[in-house]
């Protein structure tokens, strides 16, 4: 038997009449009657008691009807789910976020994704350095990354979202804190808190590049892995940090932020994913992210 036979059976059972059932199914009555006969032959039971005016279900037919309705409901639900999957409306994705995106962008992004793509289950990993995100994308531990370029991996697709200017995070009692802006040259001899060099942090390289372009040799006091730890140490008076402007969303008592100027500097934020990933729900998610930022 096939699904058509089951749907024919339900139509006849509900209409109690082959003619009306045939009209409902947009088919001729003789093929419908033949299909029901074949179904009864395959089952080895009589499903209907027939008269010249109507048909009635037998006890076997009534029992069969309940089960067939349940089966067809499951089949229809499965088809609906498959269509939603094909359209990218359902699925699960894990997003990895660089430290600065964790505080400033993730709250907005998570709410926006929940609104725009309610059928997709999202989970998030924050405070990830770009090299760790690249490795997690390769392994499948995360599906999409908000990271800081450059990303020199041809297996990944990277779209730049925007450029964030750099600011200086200072302890409130620091001599530079009263300034409205801080020049790169002002950081000569100043204790710095930076991201780990041995983890190939993009921010580490950017900060060192900006300072050395200004003729300043960086004086590193502490290296850390997480942006939240970096700002916490600034609040503790242990040094100064150069960070992307979105980090200013992380407000701690004892920390002030000042624009970095002369030269003014910025760092890109990008969305990345594996180039061999073509699932519709991933493509929709990336599209939402690109429109948002």
UniProtKB/TrEMBL annotation:
PROSITE patterns named in the record: HTH_LYSR (PS50931)
Presence of the UniProt keyword Transcription regulation in the record: yes
Pfam family membership, one: HTH_1
Gene Ontology CC annotation, any one: protein-DNA complex
Superkingdom as given in the UniProt entry: Bacteria
GO molecular function, one term: DNA-binding transcription factor activity
Domain HTH lysR-type positions: 1-58
InterPro entries according to UniProt: LysR_HTH_N (IPR000847), LysR_subst-bd (IPR005119), WH-like_DNA-bd_sf (IPR036388), WH_DNA-bd_sf (IPR036390)
UniProt record similarity statement: Belongs to the LysR transcriptional regulatory family.
Protein name: HTH-type transcriptional regulator BenM
Native species: Streptomyces jeddahensis
Lineage of origin: Bacteria, Bacillati, Actinomycetota, Actinomycetes, Kitasatosporales
Gene: benM_1
